[in-house]
Amino acid sequence: MKFLVFLEHHGDALEKGGLGALGKAAALGEAVGVVLGEGASALAPGAGAFGASKVFASEDPALAPPLPQPRVDALAALVVQESPDAVLFGASVLSADVAAGLAARLEAGLNWDLTDLEVRDGELVGKRPALGDTVMVDVGWTDAPRLALVRSGALDPVESGGGAEVESFEFETSDFSTLATLVEQTQEESTGPSIEDADVIVAGGRGLGAPDKFTLLEELANALGGAVAATRAVVDAGWYPYATQVGQTGKTVSPKLYIAAGISGAIQHKVGMQGSGTIVAINKDPNAPIFDFCDLGVVGDLHEIVPKLTELVRAQRGS
Amino acid sequence: MKIAVCVKQVPDATVHKKIDPATKRLDRFGEAALNPTDLNAVEEALRIKEAAGGEVVLVSLGPEKAVESLRKALAMGADRAVLVADEGAAGSDLLGTSRALAGALERVEADLVLFGQASSDGDGAVLWAAVADRLRRPLISQAASLEVGDGTITGKRQTEHGYDVISAPLPAVVAVSDAINEPRYPSLKGIMGAKTKPQETISLGDVGVDAGAAGEAGAKTTVLELGPPPSRGDSVKIEDDGSAAQKILDYVVERRLL
């Protein structure tokens, strides 16, 4: 089975979501990567280490801004040229728009929010948790190209070594694809890993009591080498940036360890983090719903527990 | 300015949702409501209309009884509704849904097409990009704010990395995030008036979609099997007696997460 994997990049790094999908593709068949936009040629060879046998790259000027429609043109041309059985994407704001535009353009089936992929009796099967992850649905496609968006954090990149051959390719932009233009870009300041990339997430909700209390979480995340996330309620209140919002209208994350501090565990938050490996919850309300879907629940005051835990982690790591 | 808002009827948030094992589709019987984040798109359309004049048209694909849900958005102030209701559309995947909506939108001839954020019944945040491609119009998604200028629209897109300000000429397709506004409540006058606003129910044929191009026949994705989700295993709950931090550390170390 031949896979084409869209490798989104930001700055000078390939995104983890695309690399995770690439590793899965390499495990199931032939994995061909594609990197589009500024810096693509320099980044493309690096995908070899994560399973790509070949990587297509284009730095066409239409691809310079991080906008979806010219990317649909590029991928549509590449799919026609390469005839892959499937095209995989790691979910993001940009990739979801590219995948859906490509589905319409090629009249190709798109399954999204997949947490895994497998080949069963020669057919590609996607795993998709549904209804707030209460049901696991196996999904398929009627024919190629099969398009798939993989939930962020669901597949870890696998470093397998090896190099990839890099090839450039040509495509034509559609008349409407370059009408939308990027006027300005604002990067949010962040130190440490993003919440999509982090193995450990320390998340805070209204139970923190005040915006400055996020410092407690930042210190713990720092000690653990993780990232800080937030609930919709505190993002809406302006306590923490939207980029860190986990839940139905934010990100879906699945780190190895998720520490929820002062988060009640509303369904809207639950759908964004219940795929995490281990969930530790700290909340002073013993009846908080989060205690129904965590692995370790602690009834107590996060303002006392979190700083102590930070000290203990630092001591443990220092020793 | 004519603004079309794509809205969808979904099972009410308070209803326990389940999948019909026979059809492997979401069971859509019972209480229904408008997808909550669609209300943000309706609200934004009303604000643009209030500032610049024009008309707000609701466009939806769904069962005939979806007119009841559309009435709420009419009560908020939308001018009329167009519902594509056709048994042949049941079981549509992204391809059929986007084809039917694009057909209906072409009929409406809007300057601006608005979508709300991902629907609450399992549809991913994918519909607008497919519709924009079919309509061959520029797209701005995940817009946390919008500004309409002379023949242009500018939106602030929220991404994983920050904000992108994107501008596009009209006609355009825009998906708004739920952070963009706080939807208004319908007034009593609005609720009374909604009943007399024009509501048109049309078929797939009316929007130029062949029977084989929508519904299950036009779908290129399939549902193979339903199963239980991976279980979380046993959970432990403790009360802090001063040693909780140590216990968390021990738990995490034991599972080699540090």
Question: What does this 3D model show about the protein?
Answer:
The complex is a heterodimer of chains A (319) and B (258). The termini of chain A are far apart. Chain A is an alpha/beta fold and 319 residues long. Chain A is built from eight helices and 18 strands. The mean pLDDT of chain A is 93. The radius of gyration of chain A is 21 Å and the shape is globular. Chain B is an alpha/beta fold. Chain B has a single domain, classed as Rossmann fold, CATH 3.40.50. In chain B, strands 11-10-9-12-8-1-6-7-13 form a nine-stranded mixed sheet, with helices on both faces. The model of chain B has no long low-confidence stretch (mean pLDDT 90). Chains A and B meet through helix 3, helix 4, strand 7, strand 9 and strand 10 of A and helix 3, helix 4, strand 9, strand 10 and strand 11 of B.
Unreliable stretches of chain A:
none
Q: How many β strands of chain B by DSSP?
A: 15
Radius of gyration of chain B using CA atoms only? 22 Å
CATH homologous superfamily descriptor of chain B: HUPs
Shape of chain A: globular
Helix percentage range of chain B: 25-40%
Determine the CATH superfamily of the largest domain in chain A.
HUPs
Helix content of chain A: 25-40%
Mean pLDDT of chain A: 93
Low-confidence stretches of chain B: none
Main beta-sheet annotation of chain A: 7 strands, parallel
CATH classification class of the largest domain in chain A = Alpha Beta
Determine the number of helices of chain A (DSSP H or I, runs of at least 4 residues). Answer: 8
Termini distance of chain B?
A: 57 Å
Number of helices of chain B: 7
Query: In percent terms, what proportion of residues of chain B is strand?
Result: 25-35%
- Beta-strand segment tally of chain A: 18
Tally of separate domains of chain A: 2
